[in-house]
Design goal:
Blueprint lengths: L12 H17 L20 E13 L17 H29 L3 E13 L2 E6 L2 E6 L3 E8 L2 E8 L2 E9 L2 H12 L4 H4 L8 H7 L14
Antiparallel strand pairs: 1-2, 1-7, 2-3, 3-4, 5-6, 6-7
Helix pairs in contact: 1-3
Length: about 220
């Protein structure tokens, strides 16, 4: 992950989330069930434990269209000087509209990060839930085939959905928790989990200096 240079900045909610993540990871590695809990407005599966929740922003790596567009061929007929002017204006408007449609279609055909979800995330021991104005969408660890922390609070997820494979960029204070729980369950040999690089460089020392020594600062619990 990118080097974190927190010197001089205040303690943020993202730091509290990472500090809490360290507590959860410590409990899991020591064979205990973490004490952290959050309430939910939707039912969970039997025995499922909700650890944390907060705001989330999800973008999907995809195209918005296939590059096709419909042209406008409307034409105004008339006679005399006024009719010729009207016809010329109609042609110009049609050309402009068609050019705009073509440009939009070309832009839509580009594969890039596009907004997908703006809402809340709830992270549990079995996966996570995305909640927005359209409903509640559960994601189990087994539906996710690849994951990588790209930056502090940002994780890239590749998985299998009801509409096929997808790749998401998930931005949330709980990105590190999502990664650690998934990797612990699905890929314990993930390089970022094994070498501890899932944590921002220098963060443990900085948090300790702020008076919040993370549980992971205990040598026996480090990766």
């Amino acid at each position: 992950m990118d080097q974190l240079t927190p010197s001089g900045r205040p303690w943020l909610p993202a730091d509290t989330a990472l500090w809490t993540t360290c507590r959860i990871v410590t409990d899991i590695r020591s064979g205990q069930v973490p004490d952290e809990r959050v309430p939910t407005y939707f039912p969970l599966r039997d025995g499922e434990v909700p650890f944390a929740g907060g705001i989330v922003s999800v973008d999907e790596f995809r195209a918005a269209g296939d590059g096709s567009y419909s042209t406008s061929n409307a034409f105004a007929f008339g006679t005399g000087t006024l009719g010729l002017a009207l016809a010329a204006t109609t042609l110009a408007v049609n050309s402009s509209n068609n050019n705009a449609r073509r440009a939009q279609a070309e832009a839509d055909a580009q594969v890039t990060w596009r907004p997908q979800v703006r809402g809340q995330i709830v992270v549990t021991d079995r996966g996570f839930y995305l909640v927005d104005q359209f409903g509640v969408f559960p994601w189990g660890w087994n539906s996710i085939d690849m994951m990588q922390l790209a930056a502090f609070g940002c994780v890239i997820v590749s998985g299998r959905s009801t509409r096929g494979p997808l790749t998401w960029r998930v931005v949330t204070d709980w990105a590190e928790l999502v990664f650690v729980l998934w990797a612990t369950n699905r890929h314990p040999q993930h390089p970022q989990l094994v070498d501890g690089s899932w944590m921002p460089a220098g963060w443990i020392a900085w948090a300790t200096a702020q008076g919040y020594p993370p549980a992971l600062s205990r040598p026996e619990l480090r990766p």
